[in-house]
Design a protein that fits this description.
- The chain has about 140 residues and is mostly helical.
- It has two domains: about 1-65; about 70-135.
- Helix content is about 80%, strand content about 0%.
- The protein has helices at about 5-35, 40-65, 70-95, 100-130.
- α1 (about 5-35) runs antiparallel to α2 (about 40-65) and α3 (about 70-95) runs antiparallel to α4.
- The chain is globular and about 50 Å long.
- The N and C termini lie far apart (about 40 Å).
Length: about 140
């Protein structure tokens, strides 16, 4: 059973769904641009932006009912933990279970993910050491 209140769980589920949908529309827009379909690309990009807005509405609503003790550094630490799980467990398992070509694509993603994790770790360190914004 989830430790999250049901409303917060549903809002986070909705956020994830809308964020994934927005990414899909951005990918479709890129494909349409590559095919020379500029108006279609623009329309798909607008849909992606609208999906991003829906995701942000749900994220903000979920944040409004979060535990008061979960401040921004804790949220960044949770994001880092998710990134590390993806790098150390999720993607390696998927790479083992697919063909070589797909594994190569996923391996490239892991390389980028490692850079993301390092960046998140640096941001977490900076925000933990700072009373306000992070240094430039």
């Amino acid at each position: 059973m989830s430790r999250l209140p049901r409303a917060q769980e549903y809002l986070k589920t909705g956020f994830n769904a809308e964020a994934a949908s927005a990414a899909r529309f951005r990918a479709l827009a890129a494909r349409a641009r590559e095919e020379g379909r500029q108006r279609l690309a623009a329309a798909l990009a607008e849909l992606a932006a609208a999906k991003d807005e829906l995701a942000l509405v749900q994220y903000a609503a979920a944040e409004s009912i979060r535990e008061p003790a979960e401040e921004l550094p804790a949220a960044i630490a949770a994001a880092l933990a998710e990134e590390q799980y993806e790098n150390e467990s999720l993607y390696p398992r998927m790479i083992r279970e697919v063909d070589a070509e797909t594994g190569g694509v996923l391996s490239g993603i892991v390389d980028s993910q490692r850079a993301h994790a390092a960046r998140i770790e640096g941001l977490l360190d900076a925000v933990t050491r700072s009373a306000g914004d992070i240094p430039a």
